[in-house]
Each structure stands twice: as structure tokens, then as C-alpha cells.
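Consider what follows.

. . .
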Amino acid sequence: MTETMETLAARTAGRLVGDPEVVISDVVHDHREGGAGAMFVARRGLTVDGHDFVAEAATTCAGVCVEDEVAGIAVPQLVVEDSRHALGVLASAVHGDPFSALRAVGVTGTNGKTMVTHLLGSIVAHSGRIPAVAGTLGWSIGDDRFPLARTSPEASDLYRMAAAMVSAGVDVAAFEVSSHALSLDRVSGATFAVAAFTNLSRDHLDFHPDMESYFEAKASLFDPAHTAHAVIWIDDPWGARLAASLSMPLTSVGASADVSVDALAATADGTGFDLMSGADKGRVNLPLAGRFNVSNAAIAAACALHLEIPFDAVVAGLEGATAVPGRFETISVGSQFRVVVDYAHTPDGIEHAVAAARDLTDCRVLVVTGAGGDRDPTKRSEMGKAASRGDVVIVTSDNPRSEDPAVIAGQIMEGVGDHPAAVVEIDRRTAIRNALTEAQPGDFVLILGKGHEQGQEFADRTDPFDDAAVIREEAAAL
């Protein structure tokens, strides 16, 4: 698809300086990615101002979008009031407004976004249609998978990706939508057939001033400008508040809601529950452990049912779902105890992971956890408090980034308190080894925080580190 500078100026209500007939075939937010036919959009960030790179971008790009006119460049300029917002509008236009051709589902909330989108993808596939999923683990069309740099990509990448989905014949596309993406206008111009809310708990308060601001960022997705229908887990207090505030069409999900769940039964192989929607009722044997996955499954089901996917296909899709890397993932080590890796990195996430482990063993729960550096430090003691529900707690390093991991561990230990079996072992491999060595038959070992991640981030480097691989290596050496 292509658009002229003139038509793009009309889409953004911008002021055009230069040749209106110049044709734009792509939109980029990184001046280094520019090329023939590309428009570079200069944005002001927290540490870098894209306007500093306009002159360089003008040597390779066909046009630029700026907030302040830049003198002495040879390509046409589109001058707008807010270039961050314009980025999405421009990318959508150039790529043919792909969201208008997709039945897009945006999923937001603190925990569960990845699992909801994954389960919805499984449902769509079992209904005989082509699904697409995008989020923390990358993006996919059917069985084809591609990497993503962040949970919710910049708008220029988002629309390029959405256009590829349309070209591939995707019917339903499920997107994780982070609070950062909403606050930074990464989904500007996108429209969703459904927006879903999972839950809200303490996280990202290094970015948002407080929980109220965090909630408002999530809630902004549920605006008629963004979405036509809401799906909300109302058993979460923030979800109940959000549902009560909306005037748009809404499907409530919970124990007593439009789509409801009942008769939960947790086993080592999965979780069974009754799923009900209107006159439809069915038993679902979800092949994923953890009671918390029931809410994720019900939210995915509600989204699918609103999109008129038959109830039987919804049940089949949930029952045919595969495990998600790093999401309460069992790592087989041939032992008499169970080892699970989970991405839980918030107080609420840790609490739910420990509770799920309690459901599945009458013996001890051993918890290995840490906290990321250069992120909200106020949640660390609460993470420790949640981890202290385990019988054995080993506090270790996560992704320390520029912080001292010993300081982070100390802040976690403040919440752990006087737990009789809690220790600090900064080296993550050693911490995992010690947990495996300590575990007895019937115990449940939780390795929390990094989940699917393949590296450990320090101030000056990222070292290869995969919890699942390290578990297997250390178990083999015992």
C-alpha cells in the first residue's frame, strides 16, 4: 500500500511543507530503518529526541513527520501537534488500515495476558479459522512464529505486522496490550472488536505514578474510539470497578456473570471446570495446571463467543491448548518431585503460583524468586511476603540490570520476614541447584520470575540464561 504526503497530511490534520505528491510506502520510528519510500516519524522520548536525527533520516527517507519544522532538509515534512499519536495514524494509513480487516482482540491487565491470547488462538484454530497472536512471546500466524522486541510493539511495527496478518488470511488476531503501550500511544488508530481485562495488581509503578494512574492507563483501552465490546473478569475488584464505569456493550466473566465458571478441580495434569454462557454449559478439561488459568480460559471463551465462535469449538479449543513456555510450565527432570517454571514477577503472580502449587501437593512447596532491577522497587517486599507462603524460600537474582542484586534481595527479604527456611543465594544457577538438592519426594519446586526468558540482564551485558535449561542441567548433575 502507498499514500501521498498530501493524503497523509489530511489523515493527521498536519501541515505539509514540500512536495505533496511524494509517495510513502512505509512508516518507521527509528531513523536507521529508513529507506526509499519510508517516512521517519520523529518523537520526543524520555531520554532521546527523534528530532535530533531528522537530518540524517532525510538522506534516506522520502519524507519526515515532525512536531517542529526542520530547516535545510530536502524531503517534504509533515508538521503535527503530537508525532507519537501521528505515528499510529500514519502507519495505519500506509498499511491499508489493517485493523478494519481483522477481528482484533486486545487483552490488557497485569497478569494473564499471554495465556488469554494463547488460549483464544487455540479456540480460533479449533474452529477451523486462521488465528494470529502477538505479545510477550512474539507474534504468530497459525504455526509460524516471529520475534518481538516488546509485549506491545511501536505503532509502526504494529501496523506492519497487522498488514501481514491480513495478507495471510487471519480471521481473529489477539494482541496483548500493555499499559506502556496505552500510555505511549502505541495502539493509536487501532480498533478492536473486543477488549478484555484480566485483573490488576501492583506492577510498573516505576513508570506509572500510582495504582490509580496504572488503572487509568489500562482502562483507556475501553473507549469507543478503541473498542466495540468489553470482556471483563469482574471477580477482580479493579475489573468490577471498570465494568461499572462503562457504557459500552459488555460481557462480564466470573463465578456469577454472563460467562461463568464453577466446579473447579485441580489435578497434576490440568484443571477441570464447568463453563456456562446463557443456555450453553459444558465441562472443560483444561490441560494446563493452576487454578488461575481458569479465569484466563473463561476470558478467552467469552471473547470467542462474542465473535460468534460456536460453544463446542470453544470447549474443543480450550481442551486442545498446548503449554505456554514459562507459564506454570512443568520441567521434566525424572525426579520424584515436581519442578515448575513460571513468569510470576509480581506479588499477586507469586501468590497465585504458590497457591496453585499447594493444590497439587500435600508436601512442601519450595520457592526460588527474585526481582528485576531498574523496575518498581516498592513491590519487592510484597513479593517477599507472597513468596513466604512457601515452605522453603530461596531469594536470588533475576535481571539486576544496573542495580546491586544483593540490595534487591535484601528488599525482598524484608517481606519474607522471619521465615524459618528462607535464605539468599544471589547466583541464580546455584539457587536453582540448591532447591533441587533440597527437594524431597512429593515436593513442589517453583522457579519464578523469568519464565520464558533466555537471558539474564546486567548493567553492561546480557548473559545467556534459560531457567528450564538450567534446571535440566543441574538435575542431571545431582
In short: The CA atoms of residues 230 and 292 lie 21 Å apart. The chain has three domains: 3-94, 98-319, 329-477.
